[in-house]
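re: the backbone from monday

yeah here it is again, tokenized this time
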């Protein structure tokens, strides 16, 4: 019944030309804006410039006015700041309520949300409420030259193909985007923007959840922030052998990663898995050792600045996307490579 009501509401007012601009959901946790928000602003800026339209961010929370400047610095022309009691921690109902109201009122053409735990909860619900589509887990975005539609690319069929999805008949065009896929711009402190403050009350809605306590885990390893990653695959051979990868990463001041084969073999914790079902990374240097370069692995590394591959099979697919390929035994080559790189 709720869905039918929503559809009817939208059929009455669904004039696509009313929609304009790119809007980024600025995810914050405990008042800290998450990196994904800046990455989305970086990409959102490119999309907005191609359309000749505005880039906005929506920030929801309590006592977070001090964070608005950061969003301007990273490229937003406008920030919608939604504040009110009940928005301090992420909860599904209040955040959906706020997003739905802002989207219906300000009608963005495109809405971008991080494919984080929060974004994966929020994105589909908002799409349902505003009666539009959602392309989940995108790894590439673009604007079609002729139609000006958002090109939303994501892995499909178990990662065997990349599908580009369009949303021609509904607005906004909505996508969730994997963290680590896009680069954030360098912050520009001189950049100013327009602030729209919206006070909201959640007293009208039925909120079924309450945050009782927030427990901080120990240090969470995040290879997505690393500038240098040395990754090992099945070719490394064993958990003990993986020390060569770990040591190389340490010597280069980076972090180690792994293919799914190495994780499935139990050599490495899944927090370090790179690829479609692992992390998407975008380091300055990615060194793939004993990794064949399956499409699911490539999906996680294609945004790296430089890919160096060491593999003893000259026909390994990893060489197709590597900037530098070294054909040979990783146990001989990696120590030499580390030594040479450290001289640079
Ligand atoms: P292999 O493909 O076995 O390659 C090992 C390579 O090591 C070979 O190329 C070999 O020539 C080389 N080698 C062996 N010994 C040496 C040596 N001494 N020196 C140099 N080279 C050597 N995979 C991921 O990595 N990440 C994912 O997130 C992911 N998600 C997936 C999701 C789905 C739905 C599916 C179906 C698969 C997914 N996979 C993922 C698995 C993926 O398809 C591959 O099976 C996996 O990436 C293979 O890992 P690998 O390259 O380490 O192993």
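seq for it, each position gets an aa:
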């Amino acid at each position: 019944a709720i869905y039918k009501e929503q559809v009817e509401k939208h059929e009455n007012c669904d004039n696509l030309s009313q929609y304009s601009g790119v809007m980024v959901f600025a995810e914050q946790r405990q008042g800290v804006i998450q990196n994904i928000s800046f990455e989305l602003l970086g990409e959102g800026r490119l999309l907005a410039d191609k359309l000749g339209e505005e880039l906005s961010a929506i920030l929801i929370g309590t006592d977070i006015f001090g964070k608005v400047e950061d969003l301007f610095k990273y490229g937003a022309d406008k920030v919608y700041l939604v504040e009110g009691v009940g928005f301090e921690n992420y909860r599904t109902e209040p955040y959906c309520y706020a997003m739905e109201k802002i989207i219906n009122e300000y009608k963005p053409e495109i809405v971008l949300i991080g494919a984080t735990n929060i974004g994966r909860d929020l994105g589909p619900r908002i799409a349902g409420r505003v009666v539009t589509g959602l392309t989940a887990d995108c790894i590439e975005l673009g604007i079609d030259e002729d139609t000006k539609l958002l090109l939303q690319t994501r892995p499909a069929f178990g990662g065997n193909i990349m599908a580009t999805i369009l949303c021609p008949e509904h607005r906004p065009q909505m996508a969730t985007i994997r963290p680590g896929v896009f680069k954030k711009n360098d912050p520009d402190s001189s950049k100013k923007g327009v602030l729209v403050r919206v006070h909201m009350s959640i007293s009208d809605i039925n909120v079924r959840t309450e945050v009782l306590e927030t427990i901080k885990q120990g240090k969470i390893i995040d290879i997505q922030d690393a500038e240098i990653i040395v990754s090992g695959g099945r070719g490394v051979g064993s958990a003990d052998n993986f020390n060569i990868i770990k040591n190389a990463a340490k010597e280069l001041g980076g972090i180690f990663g792994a293919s799914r084969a190495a994780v499935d073999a139990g050599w490495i914790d899944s927090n370090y898995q790179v690829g479609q079902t692992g992390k998407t990374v975008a380091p300055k240097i990615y060194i793939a050792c004993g990794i064949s370069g399956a499409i699911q692995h490539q999906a996680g590394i294609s945004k790296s600045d430089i890919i160096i591959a060491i593999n003893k099979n000259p026909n390994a697919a990893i060489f197709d996307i590597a900037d530098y390929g070294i054909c040979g035994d990783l146990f001989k080559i990696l120590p030499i490579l580390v030594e040479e790189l450290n001289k640079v």
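The chain has ten helices and 17 strands. The radius of gyration is 22 Å.
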